[in-house]
Amino acid sequence: MRKLAADQIAPHAAAVDDEERFPVEAWQALREAELPGLPYDEELGGSGGDLLSQVIAVEEVAAACASSALVLLVNWAGTSTVVSHGSDDLRAEVVPGVASGEAGAAWCMTEPTVGSDLSGIKTVARQDGSDWVLTGQKRFISNAPWADWYAVLARTGEQDFGVFMVHRDDPGVSFGPHEKKMGMRGSPTADVVLEDTRIPARRVVDDPKQGYRYINAELNVSRALIAAQALGIARGAFDQALAYTAEREQFGQSLSRFQMVRGMVADMAVRIESARALLYDAVALIEVGDPRARSRVSMAKLLCSDNAMSVTTDALQLHGGYGFTREYPVERMMRDVKITQIYEGTNQIQRLVIAKDAYARQVRS
């Protein structure tokens, strides 16, 4: 993964960012390496990789190009509820194309007035004969409009929600303009607009009243992947800082010889390794279904993204004035990593999850 990222993804990362375009070269390289199918069972066209292998893959891609890593992991997130709760027919309809990389996927939760509070979503789905009709607007949807499949969380009753697999070619589906973003500029992001979008009943993921529960159950995995993305960006920036300070000379010696520089480098190394250790611990708990996983993965997402923000900031600082230019990738990495503190549940939300679990465990003990 590291060789693939260095040889076939990193060389195009700056152009992808500057031109705000889809990372076509990276996606082709990932397809040739059969990475899109990593988490899926072989009968669905995948290779059956476990969560740790997905985390490692995302970290290595993100170290080269964060946008490319986001395209990959959002594909996996967009099909997660289908894989875990969908019927055999729905899995067969959606997953093989995504696993091969021929089709893209996304999931649609956020709305113009709804971010962290998913219970407040306004998109509705009503049953009409054997079909379902969806109306609403989803915001900040990664992989839109590039993706073919969209896992849409919609209200089906006063307190009920369903997950519906919408195809980009379904009637009534349209997309907003490309979002102009601070970072992750190679990751396509747009509104998904549903205007009386009619889909067949087979595209409902299991019980149309349990979608909120299904989505929440998938957040452990998606947060682990976002944590891995942040970790990868941090490591990429760290590697750049090491290379620059080893080569750059001031006052007749390499920057790497200065004690204050070495102190910063040591702190960056500790932040990266401690974050990775916590992430791998969370992954192990997720894999065995341990109830502690929800809190632990929130810790990992929080620590990986906060530490990554710190590491990329220090990496830029170590480049001096050059770090503030687009000649070096650290400024892109600093811009890219900020969103990891925001999406998939802001770090303030992660703190609430962690604290709630801590108090609950104190009461039980």
TrEMBL record:
<keyword id="KW-0274">FAD</keyword>
<dbReference type="GO" id="GO:0003995">
    <property type="term" value="F:acyl-CoA dehydrogenase activity"/>
</dbReference>
<protein>
    <recommendedName>
        <fullName>Acyl-CoA dehydrogenase</fullName>
    </recommendedName>
</protein>
<dbReference type="InterPro" id="IPR046373">
    <property type="entry name" value="Acyl-CoA_Oxase/DH_mid-dom_sf"/>
</dbReference>
<dbReference type="InterPro" id="IPR013786">
    <property type="entry name" value="AcylCoA_DH/ox_N"/>
</dbReference>
<dbReference type="Pfam" id="PF02771">
    <property type="entry name" value="Acyl-CoA_dh_N"/>
</dbReference>
<feature type="domain" description="Acyl-CoA oxidase/dehydrogenase middle">
    <location>
        <begin position="107"/>
        <end position="196"/>
    </location>
</feature>
<keyword id="KW-0285">Flavoprotein</keyword>
<keyword id="KW-0560">Oxidoreductase</keyword>
<dbReference type="InterPro" id="IPR009100">
    <property type="entry name" value="AcylCoA_DH/oxidase_NM_dom_sf"/>
</dbReference>
<dbReference type="GO" id="GO:0050660">
    <property type="term" value="F:flavin adenine dinucleotide binding"/>
</dbReference>
<feature type="domain" description="Acyl-CoA dehydrogenase/oxidase C-terminal">
    <location>
        <begin position="210"/>
        <end position="357"/>
    </location>
</feature>
<comment type="similarity">
    <text>Belongs to the acyl-CoA dehydrogenase family.</text>
</comment>
<feature type="domain" description="Acyl-CoA dehydrogenase/oxidase N-terminal">
    <location>
        <begin position="2"/>
        <end position="102"/>
    </location>
</feature>
<dbReference type="InterPro" id="IPR006089">
    <property type="entry name" value="Acyl-CoA_DH_CS"/>
</dbReference>
<dbReference type="InterPro" id="IPR009075">
    <property type="entry name" value="AcylCo_DH/oxidase_C"/>
</dbReference>
<dbReference type="InterPro" id="IPR037069">
    <property type="entry name" value="AcylCoA_DH/ox_N_sf"/>
</dbReference>
<dbReference type="InterPro" id="IPR036250">
    <property type="entry name" value="AcylCo_DH-like_C"/>
</dbReference>
<dbReference type="InterPro" id="IPR006091">
    <property type="entry name" value="Acyl-CoA_Oxase/DH_mid-dom"/>
</dbReference>
<dbReference type="Pfam" id="PF02770">
    <property type="entry name" value="Acyl-CoA_dh_M"/>
</dbReference>
<dbReference type="Pfam" id="PF00441">
    <property type="entry name" value="Acyl-CoA_dh_1"/>
</dbReference>
